[in-house]
Design goal:
alpha/beta, Arylsulfatase, C-terminal domain, 2 domains, 10 helices
């Protein structure tokens, strides 16, 4: 029997075909993050006043993560945690400032590029400014469209957005405009969220035609307020179904923003189906922190934090626990939910595991992969603890270990202790009855925090000596 011999050319063609087929088997990944969306702002997480049918359907077709946390209680550090897998005890950008990621920082996008992924960020970045090493196109993203600066992102009718590293002028005319593009428009024509969604859908179309999987980080700005607009900060082109409600104007705007997110998630899933890639696309939806009280918005009006205490800037559950949905047809069980206690620092190792490049993840990150949870396969590793630090407003830190949660906010106050299993709303401080647990949790917080020249907790003020005769 004659042996089959292949020419080097034919062998190369077959090898390339096999490599291409392997790449095609890797799922596309879309990570959608809303801005200041509360745990209770979606129908599938208990919302009663605001309609979110598409996200509710996403939950029905996928999995709700009911115990999932943001990286921080405000924007920039939460996004830094998401991108680098390091919690705010020692990540590089730990607060809202004008800092830029460094060339040495490893991001989710850099890791996925190692797996052959096309990468794009559309929306709000907040981790690098024009001309710096922190811009998305220097941090692993092939393509970027949206806002670099988080203050610029307050403005829904800006005079420009960024495409890669260039400014794209818009038709809006400013009434007031700050140095970063923040401000108020007197002529409102181009709504930034709509532009970003159109860009995202167009990018998906193009990426779907290429012989490589893609990763899209879709960082929406809704329902954040335009802080510079004061009580009129819930900027949205129209109130839609809420126009005739007997509600305060900011609440109509807030609800319309959330329903606009929902509308556009429906458009995104329709695009995946139209392009024939729905079954091979993992979509994760979440929020960067809890709900806000800015731009005239009242988070209590629609019960935005649901059963949780606290909002944005608090390390109580309402400031950091976020509504999270995972959908991946054929991999994630429809209509399921999980109480796995995870956080943004788990995203990098999870997506790396999905892409088959876990070996490219830095060994010193804080995250663990929750792929076993979403696929329902294998044993899910658990965190020893979860930790958050917040450096504004007197400073704060919190740690969760199992059902126990300890908080110091402000930082120079006694540790408060809660049992989340019995007290999800953190209403009953158990510190006085559990001194040993307080000591244990305090040690965890001390171990999790690494000193930083840029990010320091406020120091306690020295006590005045009021004794008689003191000089």
């Amino acid at each position: 029997m004659r042996s089959l011999r292949l020419s080097p050319f034919i062998f190369l063609l077959l090898l390339c075909g096999a490599t291409s087929a392997f790449a095609a088997e890797k799922p596309n990944i879309i990570f959608v993050m809303a801005d200041d969306l509360g745990y209770g702002d979606l129908g599938c997480f208990g919302q009663q006043k605001i309609a979110t049918p598409n996200l509710d359907e996403m939950a029905q077709e996928g999995m709700r993560l009911t115990n999932f946390y943001a990286g921080c209680t405000v924007c920039a550090p939460s996004r830094c945690v998401l991108m680098t897998g390091l919690h705010t005890g020692h990540c590089y950008i730990r607060g809202n400032a004008k800092d830029n990621l460094r060339p040495t920082d490893v991001t989710v996008a850099k890791v996925l590029k190692e797996a052959g992924y096309q990468t794009a960020l559309i929306g709000k970045w907040g981790l690098g400014h024009e001309g710096s090493t922190g811009v998305p196109t220097r941090q692993g993203f092939d393509y970027f469209y949206g806002y670099l600066d988080q203050t610029h992102a307050h403005n829904y009718y800006p005079t420009f957005l960024m495409r890669n590293e260039e400014r794209v002028p818009l038709r809006n005319v400013p009434l007031k405009e700050g140095p970063w593009g923040q401000g108020i428009a007197k002529e409102k024509i181009d709504y930034s969220h709509d532009l970003c969604m159109e860009e995202a859908l167009k990018w998906i179309d193009g990426a779907a035609k290429k012989d490589a999987p893609f990763f899209l980080y879709l960082a929406l700005t809704l329902p954040h307020a335009n802080n510079e607009a004061g009580k009129a900060g819930m900027e949205v082109p129209e109130y839609g179904d809420y126009a005739d409600k007997d509600w305060p104007e900011p609440q109509k705007g807030h609800a319309a923003m959330i329903s606009r997110i929902d509308r556009d998630l429906g458009r995104l899933f329709a695009k995946l189906k139209a392009d024939g890639i729905d079954d091979n696309t993992l979509v994760i939806f979440t929020s960067d922190n809890g709900p806000h009280r800015e731009g005239g918005n009242d988070p209590d009006f629609a019960d935005s934090n649901g059963p949780l205490q606290g909002i944005k800037r608090s390390l109580h559950e309402g400031g950091i626990r976020v509504p999270t949905i995972v959908r991946w047809p054929g991999h994630v069980k429809a209509g399921s939910e999980s109480d796995f206690a995870g956080a943004f620092w788990d995203v990098m190792p999870t997506l790396a595991a999905v892409a088959g490049v876990s070996d490219k993840v830095p060994s010193d990150i804080d995250g663990i992969s929750f792929l076993p949870t979403i696929e329902g396969k294998g044993n899910q590793p658990q965190h020893d603890y979860l930790y958050w630090a917040f450096y504004e407003g007197g400073g704060a830190q919190a740690v969760r270990q199992g059902d126990w949660k300890a908080i110091q906010q402000p930082i120079n106050t006694p540790v408060r202790l809660y049992n989340l299993k019995n007290d999800l709303g953190e209403e009953h401080d158990l510190a006085a009855d559990n001194p040993e647990k307080v000591a244990e949790m305090s040690k965890l917080m001390a171990a999790a925090y690494s000193p930083s020249e840029s990010w320091k907790f406020p120091q306690p003020k020295p006590k005045k000596n009021n004794a008689k005769g003191a000089k």
